[in-house]
C-alpha cells in the first residue's frame, strides 16, 4: 500500500509537471489569415506550397524523403500535414525540417511535426537557443514567455551551409535582424521544360519599436540588418517566396497564374520593391 501510494504521488507529480509545461506555451497573438486554410499546390518541379493564407510553408520532395520549410502556428499541424497528403505525399516521409526564423508563427507546429515524422531539424546557430527554450530568450518577445514547444535542434546551420537530400542541395543564407538566426534558402528545381533558381527570402522586417541602438538584448542588430539588406540586394533568382504571403503574394500569384505555372512567380521587380520599402523602414529606426 505504502509503495503504491509512493508511485501514485510520483505519477501525479509527473502529470503535474507535464501539464504545467504544456500550459506554459502560449502564442501571444493569432492572426486569422495565419490559420486560414488554402489549397496546397505545385509551384515548380518538386517544389510545393503547403501553407495557409498568410504563412509560407514549403515542401521540397525527393525520392529519399522530403524537406519542410516552416510550419505555421501550433494549431496548423493538421492543416500542414493535410496539405502534404492532399498533394499525394506522406507527412511521415518528411526527413528534414528547416525554418526561416525562430518565431512561433513559423515553427509553432515544428515540435509536433518532428515527433510525427521523426525528421531532423536544422537551425541557424544564432536561433538555436531560442528554439531550445521555446522563445523565452527571444531578444524582443521574451516578455511573452514560452511561445512554442521547445525543440533541441539536430544540427546547426551557418551562412553558406548546404542541406542535401535526394539530389537536392539547399543553400542557407544567414539573414539576421528580424531574429538573430533568420535565414533565406536558395536552391534549383526542374520540371520537364526548365530549371528554376528559387529564393525563399526571410524579409528583414524591423520588429522593435525603439531605436535600434537601444536594443540592449541584441547589440549588433544594426550591423546585422545592414548585412542582410546588402546580401538580399545581391541575390539573383528566377522565382522568389517569403515566410509571409503579405510579402510575396504567393496565393494571389497562384490564383492569377492557374493550375501549374512557375512563371507566375517570376517577380524580380516585386522583390526589389519589397526590400527597398523595408530598408526605408529600417533607416527610420536608426
Ligand atoms: Zn517573425
Number of domains: 1
Relative helix content: 25-40%
Task: Give the CATH H-level superfamily.
Answer: Ribonuclease Z/Hydroxyacylglutathione hydrolase-like
User: What is the β-strand count?
Assistant: 12
Spatial extent as radius of gyration: 20 Å
Report on this model:
This protein is of the alpha/beta class and 286 residues long. The protein has one domain: Metallo-beta-lactamase, Chain A (4-Layer Sandwich). The chain contains ten helices and twelve strands. A seven-stranded mixed β-sheet has the order 1-2-3-4-5-6-7, covered by helices on one side. The radius of gyration is 20 Å and the shape is globular. The termini are far apart. Mean pLDDT is 93; it is low at 15-21. The structure holds zinc ion (ZN). The site of zinc ion (ZN) has 3 residues, from loops. Zinc ion (ZN) binds next to loops.
Secondary-structure topology with pairs:
Blueprint: H1 2-24, H2 32-35, E1 41-44, E2 47-49, E3 58-60, E4 66-69, H3 77-86, E5 94-98, H4 104-107, H5 110-117, E6 120-124, H6 128-132, E7 155-157, E8 162-165, E9 168-174, E10 183-190, E11 195-201, H7 221-234, E12 239-242, H8 245-248, H9 250-257, H10 268-284
Parallel strand pairs: 4-5, 5-6, 6-7, 11-12
Antiparallel strand pairs: 1-2, 2-3, 3-4, 8-9, 9-10, 10-11
Helix pairs in contact: 7-10
The structure holds zinc ion.
Kindly summarize this structure in a few lines.
The chain is built from 10 helices and 12 strands.
Notable features of this structure?
Metallo-beta-lactamase, Chain A, binds zinc ion, 286 residues, five-stranded mixed beta sheet, alpha/beta
